[in-house]
């Protein structure tokens, strides 16, 4: 409990289905923070890392564009990236991504994954994913089956330990 009061924002969680509030991109990213913290620079930086900046720049009001009730004016992938931007805004020490890239196309997911890789050394990332490509470059992969850890290691080590994992990786050309 001390960590929560001592380091607010130290842990950030992005679920598969991100909750979006009525309001602007800026308000959704800085949700729970005083408006003074939501500087243009800080908002644009998190949008850049989440690969949502190009889309928002094209909007007439940019970061002050309304996203609509429950994010009605953005796609599922854009909602997920908005959730990632919100999590990154807190500059967490631990970032938990729970299927947080499942609605992204392959190219966008690769771009977001590269951006998340850039957090190495400053943020520990726990990524829960079914897509093998999502965890390909992880430092440590834990293979779970029905709630039990069957294997743990690098991507290649888990491939060597779990025939089904290896088979799926081969099918995907990984």
UniProtKB/TrEMBL annotation:
This is Unannotated protein. SUPFAM superfamilies: P-loop containing nucleoside triphosphate hydrolases. GO terms for molecular function: ATP binding; ATP hydrolysis activity; ATPase-coupled lipid transmembrane transporter activity. Residues 1-171 form the ABC transporter domain.
């Amino acid at each position: 409990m001390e960590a929560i009061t001592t380091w607010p924002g130290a842990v950030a969680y992005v679920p598969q289905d991100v909750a979006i509030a009525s309001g602007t991109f800026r308000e959704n990213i800085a949700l729970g923070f005083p408006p003074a913290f939501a500087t243009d620079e800080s908002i644009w930086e998190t949008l850049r890392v989440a690969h949502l900046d190009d889309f928002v720049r094209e909007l007439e009001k940019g970061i002050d564009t309304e996203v609509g009730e429950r994010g009605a004016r953005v796609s599922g992938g854009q909602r997920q990236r908005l959730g990632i931007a919100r999590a990154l805004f807190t500059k967490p020490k631990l970032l938990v991504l729970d299927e947080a890239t499942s609605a992204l196309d392959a190219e966008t997911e690769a771009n977001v994954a590269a951006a998340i890789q850039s957090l190495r050394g400053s943020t520990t990332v726990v990524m829960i994913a079914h897509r093998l490509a999502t965890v390909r470059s992880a430092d440590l992969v834990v293979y779970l089956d029905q709630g039990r850890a069957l294997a743990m290691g690098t991507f290649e080590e888990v491939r060597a330990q779990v025939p089904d994992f290896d088979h799926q990786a081969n099918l995907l050309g990984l």
